[in-house]
Recover the amino acids of this structure.
């Protein structure tokens, strides 16, 4: 599990360069991943969406476009990141810890979390809290990094651990933060292991879909 104090401090320091850094490091692929999430969620036709760990609001903004009739709320425990989300156009934001969210039971039709669960201090507890705020039959969607299998695994791990922190360090001046985040990707469960973790938290029908040769994955499940 992760160190929430370090994560919060790191994201606070890089908030103003976070989006640019993500686009550079992924060669813009992160934009395509979020658009895919928007299409998936739009297909569920939700009336209410909670984007947990919304950060600077990239996914929440995509969801507002993809689901114009839905109420989209972005929550995050880092006020500095959330300020950028609000300035960027996220209609509703709230400072909240994902492990103890200030929402009633059965509040939302859909809950999304992009690149956030991996950085939480307790993954099972976070998933149980997400299950709590979803309506019965509501949908969970997680977008996060994963490790490719097969021949690409070695080269990608080299990029992840040796190249990525250096590039990010040049952009943000915080290479140590990206060394830490690279380590979290190594530790984070993926594929069948992530689906099992999700279902242990009370969800059903968990499915994994790898993206871009397995560099990232989308997980969906039903509350």
């Amino acid at each position: 599990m992760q160190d929430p104090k370090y994560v919060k401090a790191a994201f606070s320091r890089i908030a103003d360069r976070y989006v640019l850094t993500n686009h550079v490091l992924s060669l813009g692929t992160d934009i395509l991943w979020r658009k895919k999430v928007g299409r998936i969620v739009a297909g569920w036709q939700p009336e209410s969406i909670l984007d947990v760990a919304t950060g600077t609001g990239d996914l929440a903004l995509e969801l507002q476009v993809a689901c114009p009739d839905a109420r989209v709320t972005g929550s995050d425990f880092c006020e500095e990141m959330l300020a950028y989300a609000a300035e960027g156009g996220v209609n509703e934001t709230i400072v909240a810890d994902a492990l103890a969210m200030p929402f009633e039971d059965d509040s939302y039709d859909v809950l999304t979390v992009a690149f956030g669960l991996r950085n939480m201090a307790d993954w099972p507890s976070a998933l149980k809290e997400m299950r709590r705020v979803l309506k019965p039959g509501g949908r969970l969607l997680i977008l996060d990094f994963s490790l490719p299998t097969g021949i690409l695994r070695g080269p990608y791990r080299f990029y992840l651990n040796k190249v990525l922190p250096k590039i990010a360090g040049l952009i943000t001046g915080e290479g140590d933060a990206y060394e830490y985040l690279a380590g979290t990707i190594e530790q984070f469960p993926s594929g069948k292991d992530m689906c099992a973790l999700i279902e242990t938290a009370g969800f059903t029908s968990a499915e994994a879909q790898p993206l871009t040769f397995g560099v990232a994955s989308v997980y969906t499940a039903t509350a």
About this structure: The chain has nine helices and seven strands. The CA atoms of residues 79 and 95 lie 6 Å apart.
